[in-house]
Prior knowledge:
Number of strands: 45
Number of domains: 2
CATH class of the largest domain: Mainly Beta
Largest sheet: 6 strands, mixed
Bound molecules: copper (II) ion
Shape: globular
CATH topology of the largest domain: Methylamine Dehydrogenase, Chain H
CATH architecture of the largest domain: 7 Propeller
Strand order of the largest sheet: 3-8-7-5-10-11
Amino acid sequence: MKYMRVVLLMAGLMIGAKDLALAAEEVQFYVTDVPGRWFDTTPTGATGNSLAIVAPGTTIKFKQNNGNGTFVAEARHTVTSLLWPSTAPTDDPNQLIDQTTANQDNHSVTLSTPGLYVFVCKLHPYMLGGVIVDNPTTTTVDGKPAYDIGNQLTLLVKREVTDLNLTFDSNSNLGLRLLRAFFIVTNPSNWKDYTKVGIPYKPVYPAVPVVVTGGAVVPDLNAALQATFDGLDIPKQQKPHTKAVGDVWVDTQFELSAGKGPSFPGTISVVSGQSWNVKRKIALPDQKMNNGHNMWTSHDQKQIYQTEWHGKSLFVLDRVTGTFLQELEIGNDPAHVMTRVDTQQVHVGLNGEDGVVELNRDPATGLLSYNRTISMQDLSHPTKQTQPHAHWMGFDGKHMVTPNSNSADSTLYEFTGHDTGKVLSKHETGAVSIAAGMMPNSSKYYISNYLGHSISVMNGPKARSWYGTSYEPGEKIKDISLIQGYDPVTGCASGECVDGLIGGLPVQVPVSPDGKFVITGNTLGGTITIVDTATDTLMRIIPCDPGCHGVNFGAKKGGGYYAYVTSKFANRMIVLDYDPNNDGNVDDAVIAGWAVLANAQHDNEHHDNDRHVSQDDTITGNRGMGGQGVLPVPNVYNGWVQELPIAYKAQLTKEQRNPIGRRHHDDNDHHHHGDEHHGR
Ligand SMILES: [Cu+2]
């Protein structure tokens, strides 16, 4: 009775035609690569369902290996307990689960403690499935059915150190934030659509009573969440007054196209840095590019390298025409790609494995060939599978650093030749280390810790002193919390949060080409954080969009840089002018404007003369959504900018052509001979 009522209330929202089958003692989630339906109980339904409401003692099965025949899951994943009622037994692997390696196996849990459980893939942390184990006797004071999500909830920080986990009242700011995030992430119709100008952004949540801490009842979860977080109108596109140099390539990873279908999402949206409109969509329908995640470019900017995060391939594209040149099958879940400055080799982190693949580039054709796979293990102290996600390469091609998302540490690798080198160090960072950024002289580097809600500052390859203490190569200097001043119950009410906001669940952490700032997209707060590298302190927090994720720096016309920021559950790319007057101070940081990544442009765009969007497939859904990798072209990071063709260099200022002055020449670096030497 109670359950049927809720099924009706939720119908059309997140639960498909099939009811929840509560009498059954088993619920099955299918693990798929389909946006919003990553853990889905209704794989053949028209709409997804990532939430099951079950009786205590129900077995929850997670079926991988392409089981249902409707949706394919090509990638390796984990099924990991992310959130659970604090009284659930933490030492029972049948109730709280994780895997030490990325896999395609089936998993199950049998849940007895009432409350809210959320499961995540640690590789692709937007993959969420929720279960409410509902105590059948919970009701509101007037006897109506209500759903008990638990007195207190525990959020995973680190599996091996349970007292690091974050336990908090379910009736709290953090509780509401996590519920809101769940219902946005798992429901594409709740994503923030910047084509709906003038319409309030109000995600729809289940309009049901929820029992929280101490038996208190939130009478209507939908009303409570909307009143706390939502309701501002979607603004009309604002274009930055100052143009960029070149274009910005964005992985709109969740956009769907006709030739690929929902199991193979992902396009590249190429944004003009002059008109701030999308000018090209690339889906690669023939190759079935599956969740294209991150890009980099060749030195001459003629080829774009594109990873396939839910697949096995790296793609090489022609930058000018957007056409396919090459597919290389390189391993499981290729995540990020960068080039090595001195050899033009290409390195790709295998997020579902232990290493980084190294590819050689044929300078005549621009095509790539496999050279070797470099393990990120320190073989004298091996850990569980490292699962490197977003590595970074040093300015001179001599070093590479990886954030090892599974082993919660970072490998500092030193290249000693074209295909030789060694692991210099492997030091602890924080929970689920996901991305890296290096100073433009490799002096130190930054690792974002997704579940640690922090950035680890790590010493570079030379033993060195920072803040009065000396550090070995790769050793941690400090952690910067991105949830400073945050109280899980009251939020930022105490007034100690930076700009009144929080970061948390951070993703990309590039350092600006001049080495002054680290800018990061934060998923928990839906914010952008700015760290000053001179002091390694958090200076500013700026509002972003749901699932704020990708950041990279590109040249601003006339000097300075923009930071381009993408979000997974919104279809805009923010152009952040983090230092408009270029004085090294971010007090005046401002969102200069944005590009709407949906190519169905709206009425006010009709006079733009480059509205024609060339595309290799017909866009069918999730328009412009899933913003992740972002690649400004030309690539103006120190080390790479000096290699640009003359036509691009001519568009840059003297400072942009050499962002840290002569210091980009390392002591023993014989490769660079001068600013214009490599012009073609
Ligand atoms: Cu995954």
